Amino acid sequence: MAPKKVLLLCGDYMEDYEAMVPFQALQAYGVSVDAACPGKKAGDSCRTAVHQGIGHQTYAESRGHNFALNASFDEVNINVYDGLVIPGGRAPEYLAMDEKVLDLVRKFSDAKKPIASVCHGQLILAAAGVVQNRKCTAYPAVKPVLVAAGAKWEEADTMDKCTVDGNLVTAVAYDAHPEFISLFVKALGGSVTGSNKRILFLCGDYMEDYEVMVPFQSLQALGCHVDAVCPDKGAGEKCPTAIHDFEGDQTYSEKPGHDFALTASFDNVDASSYDALVIPGGRAPEYLALNDKVISLVKGFMDKAKPVASICHGQQILSAAGVLQGRKCTAYPAVKLNVVLGGATWLEPNPIDRCFTDGNLVTGAAWPGHPEFISQLMALLGIKVSF
């Protein structure tokens, strides 16, 4: 049994990252997470929205992934949960008008259970009347509502600001996830050991949106130093990402994702200073597998038996690097040919969220497997979350 159980309050067009990153990060840490939406039941989906600034007066919106719910809202019993997470996006606008939602939030507040709300999620807190005389931050546009509701507004100088007031954790936007999730884990009574690790992400244009950001921020939230590099790009530059989803077609669909900001220069990176390598999937591995510098980097990590975690199409790079000979490996099913021709023993990803560890190598088939994927990498690195 998981040591803690929390509820994720969902709605259509909640922000894509703000739902999935805490959902999968907390599961990777051993926390049980139920995702529920008013008017929907377990097995239904919520559509999500990609919100990001692209130079206009406000953020842009495009379609995100379809987020699968695993609990029925009408069956939610607050007594079984230790905390509540509220994503932002556009969903809070209409959820804040739902009396069942407001009653649920008030019950968590009255019970002094940790509540973590990000971005526009604080509209629900205001409507529920639980921010009176409480320190609170949010996306800047939410300020008038919070002030009118009696909150002690905390101005955000950057999009990664978080504020804590008793059992209430609030954040401005998904940029704040590392601290936001860390603070929520602490509020749940959690502590992290073994987090003094340096981890490198091998990025490229049109890598899968979730497959870079979920593990990236999950590892940051544990206190790890995480860098993201891409060939021919430097720190501060961005990689466009792709949203790969399963929507009933014979293969996955693709939509534009967030733009992912790199933190270091590929040409200046000192691979020997990192404890592990993470390779996201998506379409980027197709061309990264042709880059000799990328191949050399991957071989270096494998030759030194440092942990390498690769997911989905990322195994195309492992195969090209010739490091799969004699290894056990899974991947997205369409990558089976690369894996087998690379000399590995193929492990069937059934179900699709299965992940495997073989020595220093962690492989996964697709982003639904992130909780297991991150957890297995944590085990190799000696990182533990205890409650």
UniProtKB/TrEMBL annotation:
Q: Where is the DJ-1/PfpI domain?
A: 4-186, 197-379
InterPro entries named in the record: C56_PfpI-like, Class_I_gatase-like, DJ-1/PfpI
Where does the source fall among the domains of life? Eukaryota
UniProt family annotation = Belongs to the peptidase C56 family.
Q: What is this protein called?
A: DJ-1/PfpI domain-containing protein
